[in-house]
Amino acid sequence: MRDDTPTAPSLAHGPRTLAIPGPSIIPERVLRAMHRPSPNIYTGPLVDLTHSLIPDLKAVARTEHAATIYIGNGHAVWEACLANTHARGDLVLIPRTGTFADGWGEIAEDLGLRVEYLDFGNRTAMDAAAIGQRLRDDTNHEIRSVLAVHVDTSSSVRSDIAAIRAEMDAAGHPALLQADCMASLGCDRFEMDEWGADVMIAGCQKGLMTPAGMAFVFYNDRADRARERADCVTGYWDWRPRTNPDYYFRYFYGTGPTHHLYGLREALDMIVHEEGIENVWARHAVLAGALHAAFDTWEAPGGLELNVRNPADRSNAVTAVRLPDHGTRLRDWAEHQVGVTLGIGLGMAPRDSPEADGFFRVGHMGHLSAHSMMGTLGAIQAALVALDVPHGGDGLAAAARAIAGR
């Protein structure tokens, strides 16, 4: 039998917006830079281009130390950083603020390391003093590294890496401080050298605005000295041949990610040489403030609320939202009716439980303007109205005031 029930037409035809926390929107000029024939991988322009990437990657990471490029994702550089700094049986301390700490811990266990978590839940930042106390209690210095996720992409909690280093120094503990900046690099301020991180890892597909496929490990001299006793490392993961290599292929232990390198070169031109990393951070801070203002205005009993309650703990790159019973409905409506793709809730509830439908995330990283932010927020407000989700006042107006500096 034919169903003649009228349905609202989709308004999603035309340009779409990807508002997930990575991969982020790729600028057209980055895509154009990649749209070319395969290059000579032995000599010529590609070699010079690759050499030019290293100082600019260091500029984004705010380090004068080593930078290496791996063909891979975040899981790849989790393994790379641990393999180069640890021997089997080592103990690592992982302050936990979300599911990505768990993932790093699983990689550590796979390498034969012992893992201890300090669980701070998934709504508040790490307590640096508690980390310092645990290190003071470790009188035999069994803990070899503190593995701290700067911004957990699942919970959107941002923690204070500089405060953790201060506590480690006050405790007189020799452990390395390793920071995961997958979500935050190029979005939230991060100062590798000034804040005292020994190792930092990141990927190309979020704040660096390049298609997924490359990831980076930055490390200082203290971390490289740990390489002397590391017995987990293999030829592919070894960071030393990749640092100032004598032959080009050693950058990648084989054929490089040729077209990604062209794209990354264009993205770094935009970040480092045109806008400037300080301005990139400022732009992300203003736009994140607009988004947070909108959600604070929409908050209502039985409706949505920001996962991170303390504004100081909120990321400028990703925002996790609690919306009991409606998270998946809102995501589906936004994607199919107005062409905005929001991120799924991740690790906030068991995957197969009804509670898992009560979350979503907004990615606001990389190639993002006030115009695109207001469009995403407009789509969310339309979804709240269309689905009769309880909500407060005019979030768009609050966002507009934040962008206008009012």
Secondary-structure element series: EHHEHEHEHEHEHEEHHHEEHEEHH
CATH architecture of the largest domain: 3-Layer(aba) Sandwich
Annotated CATH homologous superfamily of the largest domain: Type I PLP-dependent aspartate aminotransferase-like (Major domain)
Shape: globular
The end-to-end span amounts to 57 Å
What are the defining features of this structure?
406 residues, alpha/beta, Aspartate Aminotransferase, domain 2, 2 domains, 13 helices, 12 strands, globular
Describe what you observe in this structure.
The structure is a single chain. By secondary structure, this protein is an alpha/beta fold. It folds into two domains: about 15-25 and about 275-405, Alpha-Beta Complex (Aspartate Aminotransferase, domain 1), CATH 3.90.1150.10; about 30-275, Type I PLP-dependent aspartate aminotransferase-like (Major domain) (Aspartate Aminotransferase, domain 2), CATH 3.40.640.10. It is about 40% helix and about 15% strand. It has 13 helices and twelve strands. It has helices spanning about 30-35, 45-60, 75-85, 100-110, 130-135, 160-170, 190-195, 220-225, 260-275, 275-300, 325-340, 370-385, 395-405, and strands spanning about 15-20, 65-70, 90-95, 115-120, 145-150, 175-180, 200-205, 215-220, 305, 320, 340-345, 360-365. A seven-stranded mixed β-sheet has the order 2-8-7-6-5-3-4, with helices on both faces. Helix 7 links the parallel strand 6 (about 175-180) and strand 7. Helix 1 (about 30-35) runs antiparallel to helix 9. It starts with 16 loop residues before the first strand and ends with a helix.
